[in-house]
Amino acid sequence: MPHSVRLPDNICLTPYQPGDADAVRMLHALAFRALAAGHHTPAQIAAHEALIVANDYAEDLARSHLILARHPHEGLVATAGWLEFPERPQTARIRKVFVHPGWARRGLASALVRAAEAAAAQAGYPHLYVRANINAVPLYERLGYRAESRGVMPAGREDLPVVYMSRRHD
């Protein structure tokens, strides 16, 4: 795990293991339900949660180079990861950035995105791309990402608004 990332006290970063899947799913559902509610309809939130419980979500987690943030008493409090983005050479797609609502707005998402960026850069991916859920756009803007276009993420019968953003790793 990258050591140059500033983390809140008592938080440690660990790599994802297959046995973490249930805890990660629960965190992702809770975080999206709580933190995205002001930007999505109840139907969109339910559709996103359906993606999280789908069988192929665990496979998606396993291939996403996830970094988990853990607190010694509270357990898993955040995740972020990356994967190769074949459509763009030398580009990693930042993904699965979720923070427990009780830990939101304390710098944890920023620290985890930076850790995922550093891991991707170490693996040879200096360019970064994200399909940001509409509620996360301000976070990525603060981290230096610039909007390229708007779109939607299909979630069953619902579409979730997203912004496609990019930046180069420093």
Architecture overview:
With 170 residues, this protein is an alpha+beta fold. It has a single domain (12-168), classed as Gcn5-related N-acetyltransferase (GNAT) (Aminopeptidase). Helices cover 32% and strands 33% of the residues. It has five helices and seven strands; from the N terminus they run E-H-H-H-E-E-E-H-E-H-E-E. The chain has helices spanning 21-35, 42-53, 56-62, 108-122, 137-142, and strands at 12-15, 67-71, 75-84, 91-99, 127-133, 146-155, 158-168. The chain has a seven-stranded mixed sheet with strand order 1-2-3-4-5-7-6. Helix 1 (21-35) packs antiparallel against helix 2 (42-53). The chain is globular. The relative contact order is 0.18. The model has no long low-confidence stretch (mean pLDDT 93).
Question: Summed up, what is this model?
Answer:
The protein is of the alpha+beta class and 170 residues long. It contains five helices and seven strands; from the N terminus they run βαααβββαβαββ.
Descriptive terms for the model:
170 residues; alpha+beta; Aminopeptidase; 33% strand
List the helices and strands and how they pair.
Blueprint: E1 12-15, H1 21-35, H2 42-53, H3 56-62, E2 67-71, E3 75-84, E4 91-99, H4 108-122, E5 127-133, H5 137-142, E6 146-155, E7 158-168
Parallel strand pairs: 4-5
Antiparallel strand pairs: 1-2, 2-3, 3-4, 5-7, 6-7
Helix pairs in contact: 1-2
